[in-house]
Design a protein that fits this description.
The protein has 2 helices and 17 strands. By secondary structure, the protein is mostly beta strands. The chain folds into 2 domains: 21-123, Macroglobulin (MG2) domain (Immunoglobulin-like); 126-218, Sandwich (Immunoglobulin-like). Strands 2-8-7-4-5 form a 5-stranded mixed β-sheet, with no helix packed on it.
């Protein structure tokens, strides 16, 4: 009887210990096309207020951190979702991991807990070739021309979203024409837009997203208005300074009379002395 009681107590202790252990369960999309949003769900029975980071790594030869987002457990322990942008990432192996901060929760976790997960990113953007300008004037935009590798006449799905204006076209399949030499699917489409913006064009097929190409649409430069300019002609009168000639001294007529008179008197006196 005592033995049965001891076994029962031991089982209760084990059950109590198991029930008191906490668990964290990470569940992310295992494979995504580059450019798609990576979605992760986190479930946990950790005490409300417990916080940790969800860290996104590129896991090639070395682990390179790309992004991290904080997670805080709430009272209702509801599933929390975190989204990670994969646009511009190369194809390859990646990793998502839960990290507790220094001084944070340091207890044991249930053995069933999932605190990290490997993720594969598939990059097909190299299959897209664009031949129309990626910077266009609003008056002629948006012209989307190019080809998809090995698509022949299968068609391609387009969706156009302005970074400020939102979705302006699609998603909608457009036809592709087979290039005889390469077998690529050539496409052309004019999507009318009404305001300047950066427009992201999403190319997809039944296998998912192929890639995203951005087009910048700008307003035409306003024509400069010709404004008449009044020209004022200023006439400059040049004055030439001429040094006046030095005047020749004029002899006084009175001086000549005096001289003649003196000569006459001298002549009279001379004639009287000789008589």
């Amino acid at each position: 009887m005592k033995r049965i009681i001891l076994i029962s107590v031991f089982l209760c202790i084990i059950c109590t210990g198991a029930a008191s252990a906490y668990g964290v369960y990470l569940n992310c999309t295992g494979s995504v096309q580059a450019g798609q949003t990576l979605k992760c769900a986190i479930d946990s029975n950790l005490p409300a207020g417990t916080s940790f980071d969800l860290v996104f790594y590129q896991s090639q030869y070395t682990a390179t951190e790309l992004d991290r987002q904080p997670v805080t457990i709430q009272k209702d322990h509801a599933t929390q979702y975190k989204l990670f942008d994969t646009r511009g990432y190369k194809g390859g192996q990646y990793k998502m991991e839960i990290q507790f901060p220094v001084g944070g929760y340091s207890g044991d976790l249930q053995s069933e807990s999932v605190t990290n997960q490997l993720i594969k990113i598939i990059d097909r953007s190299g299959d897209i070739t664009i031949t129309s300008p990626e910077s266009q004037l609003l008056t002629n935009a948006l012209q989307i021309d190019g080809s998809i590798s090995k698509k022949a006449s299968d068609g391609v799905e387009l969706e156009v979203k302005g970074q400020n204006t939102g979705r302006v076209f699609g998603p909608q399949y457009i036809p592709t024409t087979k290039d005889i030499k390469s077998g690529d699917g050539v496409f052309t489409r004019k999507v009318t837009v009404t305001q300047p913006d950066v427009y992201d064009v999403y190319f997809s097929d039944p296998d998912g997203l192929i890639g995203i190409v951005s087009f910048e649409v700008i307003s035409p430069t306003p024509t400069m208005t010709s404004v008449p300019v009044t020209t004022t002609t200023i006439r400059t009168i040049r004055t030439t300074q001429t040094t006046p000639p030095t005047p020749t001294p004029t002899k006084s007529p009175l001086g000549e009379v005096v001289v003649i008179g003196a000569l006459g008197i001298t002549g009279v006196l001379f004639s009287r002395l000789h008589k």
